Amino acid sequence: MKTLLYYSFLVLLAFNCTNKPGNSDPIPKHDNFTINSQFVNEERVINVWVPENYNAITDSLPVLYMPDGGIKEDFPHIANTVSKLIASKSIPPTILVGIENTERGRDLTGFSEIKDDEQYCPLTDGAKNFRAFITQELMPKIDNEYRTTAKKGLIGESLAGLFVMETLFLQPEAFDYYIAMDPSLWWNNHYLERKASDYLKQFPNKDIILWFAGSAVEDISIHTNNLAKTLENDHPNNLIWNYSNEPNEEHSTIFRATKEKAMIWAMNKNE
Hints:
Layout: H1 4-8, H2 10-16, E1 31-37, E2 42-49, E3 61-66, H3 75-87, E4 95-99, H4 104-108, H5 126-145, E5 148-157, H6 159-170, E6 177-181, H7 187-194, H8 196-201, E7 208-214, H9 218-234, E8 239-245, H10 254-267
Parallel strand pairs: 3-4, 3-5, 5-6, 6-7, 7-8
Antiparallel strand pairs: 1-2, 2-4
Helix pairs in contact: 3-10
């Protein structure tokens, strides 16, 4: 099943199952709280960024949720990007909610029948519980404590991108728009890619937005390219989608290289 390149990619994939490293982005002003989850059976740290004028206005705002949302993960650079795009009026004012990782590989992967996958992440279908935590515990808390509209988005890269795509196919009504960079569609012998047509036939009668991208990494791009071909043939009319093939980007660069155009495209649809 796995090519030699797949094995050469082992170190990176194994690392992707751990918490993401820190970065040098300035940490913007934000709220921080913890929430006890029955679904993942632990306390989780949540970071919330709101636009600078949030307290001066009365408008309710859409919410963008992100795994890999710890202060030492991707929250600072995405919050700063959202702030920049709002200031330039490239996207509508939006609240950003970041979820700090604990056991990343557990939470961001669904079931797998492939024993070899256990080298990289636990075979626990932890994504099912993590998704329930977000939709049934975290979302109500955010809606209760902040002025929110019904519009919600989900953004992620690598394993978090896999979680974005799995949520799109398994529970598409959970969010209004989905953004995934280099999703790890190799998981479970590229199950989501292989079964995409079946999932699309069961799509709900709701307008949903999808933007996703694939880098130069062969064992990822082969699946993102194949998924784009499936979507060309089988997407329902109410799924508005865009695939960005990025052969000049690596797995380590694609998030920062594409985040702005991804958000501008996805967050302005159906406004």
